[in-house]
Amino acid sequence: MSRSETRLLQNSDPSSLHLGAIDGKVFDNSSNVLTTLPDHLIKEFSQLPKLTKEQCGHLRHFHNLASQQDGDWSFMGGASGQDHDEGSYRYQLAFMAYAAGAAHYHHLPALRSLFRSLLEKLIAKMLHPDVWSYWYLTSQSGNKLDPDLKELRKPWADPVCKENVMIIATRYNDVRNGTSIVESVIEKYKQAWESHGGMISENGLFRRWYAVRQDRVLVSQQLAHSAWVMAFMPWNYDLVKKVSSTAGTGFLQHLGDRINIRPPELANEIRRIATSTKSDPESRSVIEEAREAAKNQPPVESRPPLPTFGFIAQWLSEVEGPSELNPLLRHADQYLNPTWNKGGLYYRRHDPGWDEDGNYLYMEPYSGNAAIGYSRLNVQGGQRQMFEHPWTKEEVQHRPCVEGVGLESGVDFLRGVWVEERKAMVTTMRSWEGKDVVAGFLAKGLENGRWGIYVGGNLRETVMKGEGEIVPVEVKVGREEVDVVVVKI
User: Fold this and answer.
1) Are 320 and 244 in contact (CB under 8 A)?
2) How many Cα atoms are found within 13 Å in the side-chain-facing hemisphere of 319?
3) Residue 378: helix, strand or coil by DSSP?
4) For the chain, which terminal residue's Cβ has fewer other Cβ atoms within 10 angstroms, N or C?
5) CA 166, CA 160: separation in Å to the nearest integer?
6) Do residues 253 and 222 make contact, with C-beta atoms less than 8 angstroms apart?
7) Is 200 helix (H, G, I), strand (E, B) or coil?
8) Within 10 A of 253 (CB to CB), how many other CB atoms are there?
9) How many CB atoms lie within 10 A of CB 351?
C-alpha cells in the first residue's frame, strides 16, 4: 500500500491528494476518493470469517418461529403434550436466544438491531401463557422429585421468583447492575455438593440431583445430563475438562468421518467392562461382550426421552470443539432429516430409536429447532469467553454498529463486524430467497468526517458525517453475496 493510499484511508486532507491514478488505483475526480478499494484491503476483508449457509439457516429458522402468530407453535410441539420436559417451549426459546447471543458475540458483533429484534421476538414468545403457566402446577411438586410427599404444596405462578438459580444469568445481571452476587452463589453451590460427596458419580458422569428430604443423590446412567452440564458450566471449567475427557467413552462411536450415539445400556456395559479389564473400550472383544451383557440390563429410561443429541452437540461445541462437533453434525446431516423451510434450517422430529445398523435416529424439537443451531453458532469455549468477558454497557455504547435492519428484511448477514484498525464497517449479505431485495441499514457510532461506501469493492458514494449523524446505506441484494464496506477516508 502506498503512502498516498494510507493517507487517503486515514482521513487525509483531500486538498493534498492528487487526482488520477496511484499504484493503478483510479480516483473519483469529483471527490478525490479511490473508486475501488485497494487490493490488499479487499483481500483482508474477504478473509474475515463469515457465517456458513447452515449457520444463516439456523438464525432464520429462529426468526421464523419467533415471528409466528401468538399461540402458533408450529414445528415446536414436544412429546409430553405439556410444557413439562426438557423439550418444552421454554427451553427451545431460551436456547434459540442463547444461540442468537453466541452468534452476536462471536460472529456478528456489529449487527445490533438484527439481534435486538430477534431477541425481543423470542422474549415476547417466552411471555406467552403457553410457555410459563406450567409452573402453577409444577410448583406443587410431586412424588417423582419428592417420593415422601403426602400433600401437594401451595402453588405459585411466577416460575422465576424462587427455586430457580441460574448461575450464568446471575453473572450477566451482576455485569448489568454492578453487583457481585454470582461469586457467593457459586461458592455455596460448590460447598453444597462437596458436603454430599461431590458432583461426580463413581461412573465418571455428573450426578443428576440431590433429593433434600430423602438425603439421597440420584446418579445418571445417560450421557445426556452430563453433556448438558458441561455445555453450561463455564465457571467450573477445570472440572468440566476433566470429566469431558472420558464422558463420551462408550456412548460416542467414531465411524470414519462421523460420530454416532450408542444406546445407554450398551454404553454403560462398554464402560464397565473396559474399566474392570483395563481394555480398549472400542476393541471388538469389549464391544461383543458388552452387547451380550446389555441384553440382560433393564432399559435406561427417561419419559419422555431426553434430547440427547442436542445436549451432546452443545457440549462438544463448547468443550471439545470442531474436531468432535463436526463429525457429530455429519451424522445429523446424514441420518436426522435436515429440512429447509422459508430459508430456515431445522431437523424434523423422529421417534426414539436406532436403525438396524445401530445408527441413532431420535430427533425432537429441542435438538432440531434450537440445540443443533446453538452448537453451530457457538465456538469452542464460547460460553466461557462470554462468562469471563461479557460486554459491558460502556463498551457497547462506544462501539460502532449497524442499526435499522433485521431478518424480516429478507436478507441474511454473513458478516457484520467493525474493523477498528481500518476504521471500517464490513458487512456481507445475500437474499435468502434468491430474489432481489433492497436492503437498507444505518451505520451508527462512526467518527465525524468523510466516509466512503463501497459495494463489491467499488465506490458507491461518499458521506460527510457530522456530530450525532448516522451514515445511511442502501443496496440491492440477491442470490449472490454482496460485500458492503463503510470506511473512513
Assistant:
1) yes
2) 29
3) coil
4) N
5) 9
6) no
7) strand
8) 20
9) 10
Cis-peptide, bond into residue 49, ω within 30° of zero: no
User: Alpha helix locations (H) across 19-146?
Assistant: 39-46, 53-66, 89-106, 112-126, 129-132, 134-138
Low-confidence stretches of the chain (pLDDT beneath 50): 1-24, 26-27
d(CA 119, CA 97): 6
Report which of 292, 287, 254, 295 is spatially closest to residue 271, judged by C-alpha positions. Answer: 287
Q: What is the pLDDT of residue 7?
A: 29
Q: Is 199 helix (H, G, I), strand (E, B) or coil?
A: coil
Transcribe 388-442 into DSSP letters: HSPPPHHHHHTS-EEES--GGGSEEEEEEEEEGGGTEEEEEEEESSSS-EEEEEE
Beta strands in 183-284 (DSSP E): 209-211, 216-218, 252-255, 258-261
Cβ atoms 124, 398 nearer than 8 A: no
Distance (Å, rounded) from C-alpha 444 to C-alpha 402? 6
The pTM score is: 0.92
Residues in CB range of 84: below 8 A, 6 or more apart: 134, 138
Taking alpha carbons only, the member of 54, 137, 135, 136 closest to residue 89 is 135
pLDDT at position 468:
85
C-beta contacts of 346-352 below 8 A and 24+ residues apart: 346/58, 346/61, 346/75, 346/373, 347/372, 352/305
Per the structure block, which three cell numbers stand in for 85?
420436559
Q: What local confidence, expressed as pLDDT, does residue 2 receive?
A: 33
- 73: helix, strand or coil: coil
* Cβ atoms of 62 and 99 closer than 8 Å: yes
What pLDDT sits at residue 24? 41
